[in-house]
Design goal:
mainly alpha, 11 helices, globular
């Protein structure tokens, strides 16, 4: 495993996206445990995309306009749903001091769905991972699994960092109804904007 892969993967993981926004929103209003649950969900959501890339399914998705559009618009719908729930004081920005295990599971599930319903993620792995293979065809699958696992571990650590950092500001934010109102609007607009961006993505 090269230092180039680690640095490139870190840059990709640090870049703001749906998972980062979701984890920040969750940590900011629901606290540390909820942020960790969101991080777990977003990390698990990488697994289908990674396996699709390894098995070559991403190439099929890329070549099939219908399959790509189905997954894409399901993702768009889910992002717009999160935006609406955020504005309604539910979903990622629902404040609840007594978080239950069921609530945490729902938070993780939403994080998982964000990545599962992103067709670009499998295409990213298909284009990204092969660049760092040794060139030995007999080891390609094992190497891609290893690289994918490292990428997932980095995602989890970075997302937890984002979420915990956001949770540190939680008390200050919750004390200000005006700040909460603006946060809901900002995160709702972010989810909606990412949904619209995805809607115009092409294979």
């Amino acid at each position: 495993m090269s230092i180039e892969f680690l640095l490139t993967a870190l840059v990709v993981v640090l870049a703001p996206g749906t998972g980062v926004i979701y984890t920040l929103a969750t940590g900011l209003t629901r606290g540390k445990l909820a942020a960790i649950a969101a991080s777990v969900g977003c990390t698990i959501g990488i697994v289908p995309a990674m396996l699709a890339a390894i098995l070559g399914l991403a190439a099929v998705l890329h070549s099939s306009a219908i399959a790509f559009q189905i997954v894409k618009y399901a993702g768009v719908a889910f992002l717009l749903y999160l935006a609406w729930q955020t504005l309604r004081d539910r979903g990622a920005l629902s404040v609840d001091a007594n978080e239950s295990s069921r609530d945490l599971a729902q938070i993780a599930l939403r994080g998982t769905m964000l990545n599962v319903l992103n067709p670009k993620l499998s295409l990213f792995f298909l284009a990204f991972l092969p660049q760092f293979l040794s060139g030995d065809a007999s080891k390609a699958t094992a190497e891609m699994l290893l690289l994918g696992a490292v990428f997932m571990a980095m995602t989890f650590v970075v997302f937890v960092g984002y979420g915990v950092f956001a949770s540190l500001a939680r008390d200050k934010v919750l004390e200000s109804p005006r700040a909460m109102t603006w946060l809901r609007r900002v995160f709702a607009a972010s989810f909606a904007g990412l949904g619209l961006k995805l809607a115009f993505e092409r294979t």
